[in-house]
Amino acid sequence: xxxxxxxxxxxxxxxxxxxxxxxxxxxxxxxxxxxxxxxxxxxxxxxxxxxxxxxxxxxxxxxxxxxxxxxxxxxxxxxxxxxxxxxxxxxxxxxxxxxxxxxxxxxxxxxxxxxxxxxxxxxxxxxxxxxxxxxxxxxxxxxxxxxxxxxxxxxxxxxxxxxxxxxxxxxxxxxxxxxxxxxxxxxxxxxxxxxxxxxxxxxxxxxxxxxxxxxxxxxxxxxxxxxxxxxxxxxxxxxxxxxxxxxxxxxxxxxxxxxxxxxxxxxxxxxxxxxxxxxxxxxxxxxxxxxxxxxxxxxxxxxxxxxxxxxxxxxxxxxxxxxxxxxxxxxxxxxxxxxxxxxxxxxxxxxxxxxxxxx
Length: 359
Known about the structure:
- By secondary structure, the protein is an alpha+beta fold.
- Helix content is 19%, strand content 36%.
- It contains six helices and 20 strands.
- Strand 1 (11-18) and strand 2 (25-29) form a beta hairpin.
- The protein is globular.
């Protein structure tokens, strides 16, 4: 395939980054790119060659024509290797946050400068709601809110319908690899994840887990491949994600996850969301490791209410709070507060090298 499917003489995008994300997200106007995957792949490959290897996440956005939605959002994960390697089936909450900030900068949505202002993004598998939490420490607007394109936000993930949290129907099961069997919980909310006990890799406590190096990450590759086969995903794709979970400590529940290029610097938003969902499911590895702190999802019908308090998630970048919410006896939402992000600048992509401009 050629790079011909790029639409028009140039494509203008914006780089934005959520704090804790492994790399920036390039946010693009979906109208400037092909919609069908067979033409979109070479178009994004051409863009990827221009922006360089530091950008592995791409968010395609457009104003939504559907009532109740602000943006239609499509995430594409770049995979290591050739520029044409992408996964079109994953989701990314950090990139959704980046997309909302760029949409605000473009004037596509109302300002996200006052607490409670929000943007609803319709993406793969559900809704991501980005809600302004308060003023940015980096600067103030004349009205007293956060500056455009930067601030602190609370993110809510909501599924489109009743989520099938346990795609295999099992809360815990063995994954068979050439090195033997490893127990795992396969849970799907936000993204599908395989949760594995850190102790099964010989890692005791959060200090050992967070100090694990690339050799430990390499040992996880066949486990993730076995989880992918179990869920019907290609072994070389982005899904399912894999995270090691430690036994609960006084400060919270240790967790460390892999991303496409190695250890995640913190924890993906979808990882926090999925782990919060797993903590509501008795029998799953996270629920067992959390012990008494792990909440069971209440069954009575009722309005949106938080489940019993779950432990903070301890990550290499610091603690993360993820609160599961129920409605009518089912998991309906997971909320993650204190997410920070900012727009980094504009990128003009054409036939030659990109020209980057400050936002």
